[in-house]
Amino acid sequence: MDCGEEKEHAPSVIDRYYTRWYRADMKGKPCEDHCILQHSNRLCVVTLAETHPVLQKGRTVKCINYQISTGCSRLNNKVSGKSKRGGQFLTDFAPLCRITCSDETEYTIYSCIRGRLLEVNEAILERPSLLLEKPSTEGYIAVILPKFDESKSITENLLSREDFEIIVSKRGIAQSQPS
Amino acid sequence: MLPLREKDKPIIRKLLSAGCCARCILRFCCVSVQAAYRQPQEQTLEELQAFIVDEENGKCQDCAATESTGTNDKSHDAALSETSEDPPSKRAKLEPSVSATKSEEDSAALVKQKDEESRLCVVCLGILQELCGTIQVIKIAEAVKAEKYEFDSLVLSLSLPAQLCVREHSCWLHVKEEVRAKGLVLDKDDVIQVKEAFKWIMQGQVAKELGGVAVVTKSAFEVGVEFTHPETDTDCHFLATTCPDCFKPTKNKQSVFTRMAVVKALEKISDARFLKHYPCPPTQPTSSCTPQDIQCLHVSVFIAGRYNKFCRSLPQTPWVIDGERRMESSVEELIAAPILSTFRADGFNFSSSGREDVDVRTLGNGRPFAMELLNPHRCRFSTAEIKQLQETINKSSDKIRVRDLQIVTREAMSRMKEGEEEKTKSYTALIWTQKPVQREDITFIDDIKDLTLDQKTPLRVLHRRALAVRQRVIHSMNTRYVDPHHFYLGLKTQAGTYIKEFVHGDFGRTKPNLCQLLKTDTDILELDVESVDVDWPPAIPE
Ligand SMILES: [Zn+2]
């Protein structure tokens, strides 16, 4: 007895358990779009949106640096226990890492939401190509846990997938129209 | 015959005039003969009065009293007759010299005695007086009967107003010297507690009223009797100023003056300080204690078994998000409903050897579970009755099935949790592959043995569990090809392995994962638990 299970179409893990939220043109920089995957348990995974310049024009990644200032490295973040004691608390515009591409362009990736930093993705330090190959799964940037009572409000400043796609499609028109 | 000694006399005298009841006097005389408390309080009072009158009446009787029990009895009888309504002829025969001259005093003593009989005790506030009489016995028994419990023994538990401790202490200070004079080792701890005396008097009577059940100190069935006395609630208040440390407000307590706190404060306070703040002996109350509703409590009964879950839209426990119910039912509710009504329990706690997700089925022999049934009104069942109960559960829903249902002990329940980590579990998963695969592309999986995974706490549970990397072993796997994008994967794993994360990789946080092994994205479409290899509870043959 399967209680009306559907097998034909299989949505991906992200489709099933996460909501996609976007921040377009981060800090006014064109196309520096971030994508936040929010799990139904409120936890958020920060990733590059597919439209981010790092993933465009056949760029490759030279290095990723979680040392965001001389005094602060996201790699030093440690959380302990169920309550995640000790994790760095981030605000919307807290930088997470800097990505340097092989063409020497450099991009800063931001938290986009308020919450406690649980982990950063160390796998991309060893294999920067993961960022390009699997930007929304294995190439994630960081995992952030919003406060329980802010789990709804933190996404208020973000764009839904539909709104983001409208913005992206308008960009396409703007680019194709001669100025 | 009351087991009193010469040195009790000053205590009795002091307490009688302080307004103590006869039974409280016995308590302060450290009388531990239960029968002494069970006899009618009027009779005890008479005997006490007679006992002290002996001495007042003359030295000759006092001498007699110390000689032997025989003469003691006789002289006591004499004293008794003096304050009772025995015919004068009898009295004259026994005590000719006294009776003739004492007739006037006799009637005065009689009035005094009537007064003492009806007077409310300053220490127990009536609890050892009319509140442990036949009327109260019947009231308690009726309350128990109304609940329709099944039990073969009982124990009374008593909850008394905290100020009783203050009054007890005041009374203790009043006769402390006299009690200590009785013997070197006697102290406050040797005074019989109100609680004890109450139980000695009442337990047997209540048990008899309930059809002659046994009174057992560690009985599974507890009859709770509670008394309050609002009139004297303020008795305790001075302690808050003398010992503020003892009375820290707590969230779930209505008053800071709990019995525990009051006892602690009384241990700390000096006698002088106590006497400065509180009358010694205690003052006369105007009303006796108020009995509260009888609270019956049967100790928990534990029931265990194994369950199957055949539905992919049924959570194990009620699923509530933001105060809203997500699914209409749950495994535990389906199992619990018939059990609760059969045991007539007030509630339950459900536990199991691991748990499956809402969309996972549990097949095979099922998953061990156990339930604590709270305050069951019925708890003795034959094997056949339990089997019948299992049938009832199984007929009530086709989403679940229960087997091996049995009553177990609390201790045995822990064996279910013990086994959890070391035991193995078997699963079948329906796998989707992004790239098309051929039969021969997946057969290598069948040869993988004891594959150790490094699993970071899955993102789906990370909000409520600690972040850690855990090593888990997949002992073996087997594949059953379906079509170029689908195959069934059988797994035998160490308990605690997250199967879904092994298949989709959880953002690369479980390594190795099936995506890596097959070099393509893989996803899990269905998951069944085939067996949970915990050998508890014991199997019951069908
Ligand atoms: Zn009393």
UniProtKB/TrEMBL annotation, chain A:
Gene3D superfamilies, A to Z = 2.40.50.100
Alphabetically sorted, this entry's keywords are: Cell projection, Nucleus
Q: Which GO terms describe its molecular function?
A: actin filament binding; actin monomer binding
Its GO biological process annotations read: dendrite morphogenesis; regulation of actin filament polymerization; regulation of filopodium assembly
Task: Give yes or no: UniProt keyword Nucleus.
Answer: yes
Listed GO cellular component terms?
dendrite; filopodium tip; growth cone; lamellipodium; nuclear speck
Predominant cellular place of this UniProt entry's protein: other
Q: Does the keyword Nucleus apply?
A: yes
Q: Where in the cell is it found?
A: Cell projection, Dendrite; Cell projection, Growth cone; Cell projection, Lamellipodium; Nucleus speckle
Q: Name one Pfam family in it.
A: GCV_H
Q: InterPro entries recorded for this chain?
A: Abitram (IPR039169), GCV_H/Fam206 (IPR033753), Single_hybrid_motif (IPR011053)
Family membership: Belongs to the ABITRAM family.
Q: What is this protein called?
A: Protein Abitram
Could you tell me the gene encoding this protein? abitram
Automatic annotation (TrEMBL), chain B:
Which intervals of the chain are annotated as region Disordered? 64-110
Recorded hits in InterPro entries, A to Z, give:
PsdUridine_synth_cat_dom_sf, Pus10-like, Pus10-like_C, Pus10_N_euk
Primary location recorded for the protein, binned into one broad class: cytoplasm
State whether keyword Isomerase applies.
yes
Say which domain of life the source belongs to: Eukaryota
GO terms of biological process kind: tRNA pseudouridine synthesis
Q: What is its EC number?
A: 5.4.99.25
Which residue numbers delimit the Pus10-like C-terminal domain? 302-533
| A Pfam family reported for this protein in Swiss-Prot or TrEMBL | Pus10_C
User: Would I find Zinc among this entry's keywords?
Assistant: yes
Catalytic activity, per the record? uridine(54) in tRNA = pseudouridine(54) in tRNA; uridine(55) in tRNA = pseudouridine(55) in tRNA
Cellular location of this protein?
A: Cytoplasm; Mitochondrion; Nucleus
Primary enzyme class: isomerase
Q: Which Gene3D superfamilies match?
A: 1.10.10.2050, 3.30.70.2510, 3.30.70.3190
Q: Name one GO cellular component term.
A: mitochondrion
Residue ranges constituting the Pus10 N-terminal eukaryotes domain according to the UniProt record: 121-296
Keywords, in A-Z order: Coiled coil, Cytoplasm, Isomerase, Metal-binding, Mitochondrion, Nucleus, tRNA processing, Zinc
Q: Name one GO molecular function term.
A: RNA binding
| Family the entry assigns | Belongs to the pseudouridine synthase Pus10 family.
Q: What is this protein called?
A: tRNA pseudouridine synthase Pus10
